[in-house]
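Ligand: flavin mononucleotide. Inputs:
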Amino acid sequence: MAEHYEHPYPSSELESQYPFVHYEHERFTEEEMRNRSHGFYEQMERRRSVRMFSSDPVPKSLIETAVKTASTAPSGAHKQPWTFVATQNPEIKHAIRVAAEKEEEINYLENRMNKEWQEALAPLGTDHHKEFLEIAPWIVVLFEQRYETNVDESTSKNYYVKESCGIAAGFFIAALHHMGLATLTHTPTPMNFLNEILDRPKNERPFVLFPVGYPLKGVKVPDLKRKDLDEVLFSS
Ligand SMILES: Cc1cc2nc3c(=O)[nH]c(=O)nc-3n(C[C@H](O)[C@H](O)[C@H](O)COP(=O)(O)O)c2cc1C
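Predicted complex:
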């Protein structure tokens, strides 16, 4: 394969205007790559969302490293349009549980979620009870920054906010799993109560709420099957 580029990146003109550095890349043998890819896949394949957490404490430094990892995610125009708010404060977790259960009661008991949605959720057995929000040692809420506010109070646009936050959320979940913690991707919709409880500005909108901790010993999870490769990959 030819490796001659007619339009090299960065061009000398670009590099005269903006800083660039060499990308440090470690190249492995194909055998090493196969081993690494299988090891990572097998580890990720063991990840599950849990809905019963232990109250065992989790050091703040682990949450910080998970957020640092999440923040390495690619983002539209490198805006990193996310804010993670982490709390282990019992009063705040209680307030979040009460507000989440109030919304989820309407979703589940007053049929704000339509029949098709409720049927899709039936095998998971989720309901409006969210005790785990108080029992898990941490709640981490990922807020998307719909736009940026500058020091002079003007605003600037963010790009591909949802895509960027979705990727950051994935990195966060993977980081927690890798370090031996568990979480649940939780969306007690509508989630705007989180702005008030966590005192966040109006440019931020809750994206996902993550209870974080160790799984309760003996916890059960739905016996889900993941799609086969040929259902999710078409390659040529
Ligand atoms: C965007 C999103 C929102 C979710 N919201 C909820 C939720 O509010 N409550 C819940 O119990 N699970 C929620 N889940 C978790 C899914 O039910 C779970 O990921 C799925 O059943 C697959 O299980 P696994 O994560 O163990 O592989 C959500 C997942 C995603 C990606």
